[in-house]
Amino acid sequence: LTIHAQGDQMSALALLSAGCDLTIAVGEKMGEAVNAIARTRGARPFVAIGCVVPQFNVRSYTFRLEEACYQAGVLAATQTSVGQVAIDELGDPSRITEFVAGLTHRLPSATISGSDSTTADLFFTAGEGKAPAVLERRQSSEDSGRSVIGSSACRYDVAVLDAVASWAHRTFAGGHLDLGLSEGAVAFVTDSVSIRRGASFSKEYLLA
């Protein structure tokens, strides 16, 4: 059973998990509900994706999104033709920092501008879930002449598959797993029409 963070999380989790052998809750807002309900279920296993719940029967998964941001910066360095990248100033500051680190590591001469730039040929958005919206908007806006990169994707499916496999193989254990590039659990969204395919990265650039 997978429950998303909608409505009354506590009541939904209590009701729906009662007859389940494994309950998977997705979203940071589910943390409080999982913490409260899991402690009343004995050893029955729970999974919390996107938050950390300190219960012995809860397997928690979080994501190292900063690695995807760094990777997006490296990609931008290989794709910009003018050496200038526009950044959404409203994005997460820590993710922007990692993006700039990847960009300037690969292309030290790169310059950064605000989202209103008319000369940058790449646009970076760092807020989770915002990149798809930017991709849609660019079709009829000032972004239409620029490629878009967004470091916003958590691969929840990787966490779900790991949790289900451990439960099925009877190796399930509580604890905290922090997933990143090496586990294939974070990625970034790009405008596949404009971003050139075949860009290659070395491990040094991806994980430095």
Structure, explained:
By secondary structure, this protein is α/β, with parallel strands linked by helices. It has seven helices and ten strands. It has helices at 9-16, 31-38, 65-79, 93-106, 130-137, 156-168, 203-207, and strands at 2-4, 23-26, 46-49, 58-63, 84-87, 111-114, 122-125, 147-154, 175-179, 186-190. Strands 1-2-3-4-9 form a five-stranded parallel beta sheet, sandwiched between helices. Helix 1 packs across helix 2 (31-38) and helix 3 (65-79) crosses helix 4 (93-106). The protein is elongated, with a radius of gyration of 20 Å. It starts with a strand and ends with a helix.
Which short descriptors sum up this protein?
single chain; 208 residues; alpha/beta; five-stranded parallel β-sheet; five-stranded mixed β-sheet; 10 strands; 34% helix; elongated; disordered C terminus
How far is the first residue's CA from the last residue's CA? 37 Å
Total number of strands: 10
Helices and strands, in N-to-C order? EHEHEEHEHEEHEHEEH
The average pLDDT value, as a whole number, equals 79
Beta-strand portion reads 15-25%
Q: Tell me the Rg in angstroms.
A: 20 Å
Decide which structural class fits the backbone: alpha/beta
Strand order of the largest sheet: 1-2-3-4-9
| Bulk shape | elongated
- Helix % is 25-40%
What's the gist of this structure?
This protein has 208 residues and is an alpha/beta fold. It has seven helices and ten strands.
Topology:
Layout: E1 2-4, H1 9-16, E2 23-26, H2 31-38, E3 46-49, E4 58-63, H3 65-79, E5 84-87, H4 93-106, E6 111-114, E7 122-125, H5 130-137, E8 147-154, H6 156-168, E9 175-179, E10 186-190, H7 203-207
Parallel strand pairs: 1-2, 2-3, 3-4, 4-9, 5-6, 5-7, 7-8
Antiparallel strand pairs: 8-10
